[in-house]
Amino acid sequence: MIPAPVRYARASDVEHALELLAEPDAKAIAGGQSLISVMKLRISRPSLVVDISRLELRDVEIRDDELHLGPLTTWGELLEAPELRRPALAAIAECASGIGDLEVRNRGTVGGSLAHADPASDMPAVLLALGATLQLRSPRGERIVPLTDFLLGPFTTALGGQELITDVAVPLPAPGSGSAYVSVEHPASGFALAGAAALIEPTKRTVAVTGV
């Protein structure tokens, strides 16, 4: 199908993006791998699409005993990040390597996956197991929300209409920890029929599932 008519604007920075998102029914778009599909089906009919793909929110960095992922970081960039080549964070790269095809991995973003909240999405389960928190920014300021409180249900999150994810933070697990992600995929769509992420630490174990 063809999307309903929609206006387009490219944001020059975060403040400009938040200003554009003040319009009722405006939607942010980064890689577009999720939003465009539902727009084609006319499940989503935004009045304005705000392109945030050029904002400086793309990085993978370890600082202050936390892994920080920029929300515009693509799956392909995660696969190349040396910061993830440690057993405690292995689930992130394992998950990214199995997402979609080459085009999706080069365009799809971490933040877009979390904001879309598809119940068959892979990365939310991984970041739940790793205890991630999100930094959300709006004209009213910033707030920190645990991912457990951000994901409210299928395609439903705590993200406000005039709010953007500006950082994803994962506390570095204790030394000696390891993580992994495995999934059984639908042969046609590639979405997880079932997936499980596990973090094994010296004193505890955490498991999160998707697609079930």
Detailed description of the structure:
The chain is α+β, with helices and mostly antiparallel strands and 212 residues long. The chain has eight helices and 13 strands. It has helices at 14-20, 35-40, 75-80, 90-97, 102-107, 110-116, 123-129, 147-150; strands at 7-10, 26-29, 48-51, 60-63, 66-69, 133-138, 141-146, 151-153, 156-157, 164-171, 178-185, 192-200, 205-210. The strands form four sheets. It has a five-stranded antiparallel β-sheet with strand order 4-5-10-6-7.
Radius of gyration in whole Å, from Cα? Answer: 17 Å
Helix content: 10-25%
Mean pLDDT, to the nearest integer, reads 92
Main β sheet profile = 5 strands, antiparallel
Distance between the termini: 28 Å
**Overall shape:** globular
What is the count of β-strands? Answer: 13
What low-confidence regions span 5 or more consecutive residues with pLDDT below 50? none
Order of helices and strands: EHEHEEEHHHHHEEHEEEEEE
Structural class: alpha+beta
Layout of strands and helices, then pairs:
Elements: E1 7-10, H1 14-20, E2 26-29, H2 35-40, E3 48-51, E4 60-63, E5 66-69, H3 75-80, H4 90-97, H5 102-107, H6 110-116, H7 123-129, E6 133-138, E7 141-146, H8 147-150, E8 151-153, E9 156-157, E10 164-171, E11 178-185, E12 192-200, E13 205-210
Parallel strand pairs: 1-3, 2-3
Antiparallel strand pairs: 4-5, 5-10, 6-7, 6-10, 8-9, 11-12, 12-13
Summarize the entry for a quick read:
With 212 residues, the chain is of the alpha+beta class.
